[in-house]
Amino acid sequence: MAKLGLLLLPIIFFTLSSCCPVDQKNALLQLKTALIRSTVNTSSNVFIFGMDSWEPGSDCCDWERVMCSSSPDSRAVIALFLDTLVSVDLTNPIVVPISVLMPLFGIRTLILLDISSNMIQGEIPGNLLANLSKLVHLDMMGNKFSGSIPPQVFHLRYLKYLDMSNNVLSGNLSHEVGSFRNLMTLRLDQNLLGGSIPEEIGSLKELQDLSLGSNSFNGGIPGSVSSLKELKILDLRDNLLSMEIPSTIGKLTNLTTLVLLGNRLSGGIPSSIQRLEKLETLNLERNILDGEIPLWLFNMKGLKNLLLGRNNLTWNGNAKRLAPKFQLSKLSLSSCRLAGEIPSWLSTQKGLDLLDLSENQLEGTFPLWLAEMELGGIILSDNKLNGSLPPRLFDSLNLSALALSRNNFSGELPENIGEATEIMIIMLASNQFSGEIPKSISKIYRLLLLDLSKNRFSGSSFPVFGDALLAYVDFSSNEFSGEVPTTFCQETRYLALGNNKFSGSLPRNLTKLSMLEHLQLNDNNITGEFPSFLSQISTLQVLILRNNSLRGSIPDNIFNLSSLQILDVSNNNLTGEVPKNMGKLLGMIETPNTFFSSGELFSFRVEYDDLIVNWKSSKRGLSHNSLSIYSLLDLSRNRLSGEIPTSLGELKGLKLLNMSYNSLTGKIPSSFGDLENVESLDLSHNRLSGTIPPTFSRLKDLSTLDLSNNLLEGKIPLGGQMDSMADPSSYANNSGLCGMQIRIPCSDDKPPPGAVKEQEDDADGKWFLWEGAGIGYSVGFLLTVGILYLSGYVSPVVPRKFSRTQRRRRV
User: Fold this and answer.
1) By the 8 A CB rule, do 149 and 191 touch?
2) What are the boundaries of the signal sequence (predicted)?
3) Res 771: pLDDT
């Protein structure tokens, strides 16, 4: 037995030594336990992937996501692939605390650490990260790391790959970045980094990929970049970089991708770029570059993506007979002052997938040769093109995006439009198209966005979009008639049908649109009572019903619309009292930070026109990007009666409140002084009596006030913004107002009382009669969409966790 034990000893020793070290195994088990504990008390459905094999009784070298050394002497853990560990419902996301990672920092043998796409929150613990001094590959992208990049990171001298993109890192990029002498990939894009790009970046002689986009870097592109002879990718998009593109950039002879879009770069396109013989992508869009587009660009054989739009560049008028040496995949010459017909040399680009010639002066018809090229995306918005669309265009199985808004196209849409079954985006707004919408369009099951607004379409029969994924529909400003259509799919989130000839009552079937966020039905002939069933669409954020013939009272259950931010029912025949429950509209109490955006549906950028409102007696545009902070309530030009509920003072998120041209009585609630964000308040043309509440002096953002044509009396409050509300027309035709604002002295000339105490002031001075011209506020969503295409434009963005393939850059 003793001899047998001696014989087995080497086997036992080899078995023990071939297992991962106990301390490293325990560290990984601690990580798993901490991760589970951090998610167990959340309300989300949380799934942890790739850790099922992590059990105490097994060798950690056999676990998923773990790689150990192959050395027979030591099976130490050398690589951890911990990306996308947690999957959650993005409507109720979680964050993973940085403390979960603490056990990892004791595994000093790590060469590769990937903790990307895990929603980890907190500052990076530099002192602990310094323990991992052997790291060659560190991937931390797609988390919520905050604070500055710790200096210890720059001391990881073996690093070849560093990705900290898509976090919330801030501060300046340290000059110590020059310490990374072995670094080949540096990705810090999509953070909050600022300051200038340090000159020391030129010390990274091995660097092949430098991505600093979507930050706030300023100053010029450092000249030292020209020292990066191995550089293949330079991506500095969406920063605050200024000055000219350095001519020394032509020294980067290995460069394949140069992306500088979205900065403040000026001057011309440097001629040294033509020396970059390996260049495949040149993206200079959205800068302030000027001069002519150089013709030498068309001699660069390797170019595949040429994106120069939205600068001050000018197309060379002598370039009509070009014979380019490249074969492009993407071309953007948006806003480059192209004139005449669509350039015929484009027909030589057999592999062209995206063409963006928007915002130019192009004329003529849609050429048949362009329809036959079967492109994926055609963007010709904002030109002077005319004629009808060739049916051949819709025989394509490649077409995914068609944007022709704001031209002079006319005629009916081709009947075969439904044959383009891969199309996802159709934007034909502001043309002269007519006739009915072809029924075949309902066969495009991938259709997500359909904008036919501001044309001459007519008819009362609509395609049934039941099988489509149509999220965005704009049929406004046409000549449609009949009942309001309900043939849209359940996924519809934006529905604009305003300014048509729809009639009858609102159909109850609208409630099947359970994801609807924006409903616009203004300027039609809709009758019947205010539909109480709309309160079942709890997702509504915008409801615009103005300029119709709705009657009856505003239903009490309207407070169920807890997300409602904008409600406009002006110029109808509504009667009865204003429901007290309106003070419970949560979306107007605390304005939510979410608002529908096409950017949530597509991976390209969508630009919106402003939302036009009647503000300060004139039209004003509200930026669509700022709608998440705007909340509007317009009940004007109805026949509402009774007293104003004091509960409306709870709507602290309101920017505009208009109750003018009704028959409201009683006093103005002192609670209106709590409308801390209100900028425009119109209560004119009612029968309101009593005094103006002294609490109005608390309205710090007030810029427009109209209380004319009521029965108000007493002193106009002073203090705060009320001191500047000095337009006499705002107080005209009342019983007996006095005060500094209208230059009528009050009998009590003592200093005004404090804003927090309400009191009545005696004032019996009468003043001149003035016929007020208060105008009811109106809201119209004049949405016109122009596309800035980025790669991946044909793929819908499905809410999901980050993936390793999803996160690569767009050009």
Assistant:
1) no
2) 1-19
3) 24
- The pTM score is 0.85
Please give the Cα distance from 104 to 253 (Å, whole number).
40
Strands (E) located in 287-387: 288-292, 305-307, 312-314, 330-332, 339-340, 354-356, 361-365, 377-379, 384-387
DSSP H or E run through 3: helix 2-17
DSSP string, 12-61: HHHHHHTSPPHHHHHHHHHHHHHHHHHHHT-SS--EE-S-TT--TTS-GG
How many other CB atoms are there within 10 angstroms of residue 93's CB atom? 13
In order, the DSSP letters of 555-617 are: PGGGGG-TT--EEE--SSEEEEEPPGGGGG-HHHHS--S----GGGTBSSEEE-PPEEEEETT
Cα 333 to Cα 281: distance, rounded to the nearest angstrom = 14
Token reading at 247: 């001519």
Among 148, 222, 217, 208, which residue's Cα sits nearest to residue 180? 208
Read off the pLDDT band of 19 (50, 70, 90). confident
pLDDT at 315: 87
What average pLDDT does the segment 632-639 reach?
96
For the chain, the farthest-separated pair of C-alpha atoms sits apart, in whole angstroms, at 121
Q: Is the dihedral of CA 580, 581, 586, 591 positive or negative?
A: negative
Helix (H, G, I), strand (E, B) or coil at 192: strand
Cross-strand pairs, 288: 266
Per residue in 432-490, pLDDT (tens digit) is 999 999 999 999 999 999 999 999 999 999 999 877 889 999 999 999 999 999 999 98
User: What one-character DSSP code corresponds to residue 483?
Assistant: S
Place of tokens 């993206």: 283
Domains and CATH numbers, the chain: 148-317 (3.80.10.10)
* Beta carbons within 10 angstroms of residue 808's beta carbon: 11
**39 pLDDT tier (thresholds 50, 70, 90):** confident
Q: Which of 88-92, 306-310, 366-370, 804-808 has the lowest mean pLDDT?
A: 804-808
Neighbour-count burial for 557-573, b at 16+ CB within 10 Å, e otherwise: ebbbbbbbbbbbbbbbe
Contact 538, 558 (CB under 8 A): no
Report how many helices (DSSP H) and strands (DSSP E) the chain contains, helices first. 5, 59
pLDDT band (50, 70, 90) for residue 542: very high
CA–CA dist 310, 790 (Å, integer):
14
Distance CA 369, CA 525 (A): 44
241 DSSP β-pair partners? 219
Q: Rounded distance, CA 28 to CA 115, Å?
A: 13
Q: Is 407 helix (H, G, I), strand (E, B) or coil?
A: coil
Burial class of 136 by CB neighbour count within 10 A (0 to 12, 13 to 18, 19+): middle
Cα torsion angle, 406, 542, 801, 490, sign: negative
